[in-house]
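Hey, quick one: can you model this chain's 3D structure?
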Amino acid sequence: MPLSHTDVRRILEILDSAAHLESLDVTVGDFELHARKPGAAAFSRERAAQAPASRLTAGEAAQEVVTTETSTTAAAAEVLTQVPEGLVAVRAPMVGTFYLRPSPDQPEFVAVGAAVQAGDTVCLVEVMKMFNTVKSDVAGTVERILVGNGKPVVHDQILMLIKPTKGA
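Sure thing. Here's the predicted structure for all 168 residues.
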């Protein structure tokens, strides 16, 4: 019995809300989920070196410094935990893979400096072959994109920062 998108989301919500849990490993058949809260005990580097790249833990994905693939995003990005004053964060709704394009042959949804309206799609987060749109909550200008296209993200990770339009 494979895990559904809803099952994975619920597991991650449990980890997020449980104060006494720092990490969670779930294996169902061939599917493995390794989730770690930021600041949790370090995942065994020996085991991580043996695991395929597609099996990064959620904590490692959040701590990874990302080099982007396009000139429209920052050359190197850090993982932010605080939103700078005057900016609004666009956050990952779930653990998955971040995409700036609807498909490889299509243009990016947004780039640094692009104007967006509230409700505009700014990126996708893919989980188990399901693509989830992420929309801007405010009208403004994209100030920073913090994740590279095709890189793993964790629930509630800051993906990009938007400077709201005055009066928005």
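One thing worth noting: The radius of gyration is 16 Å.
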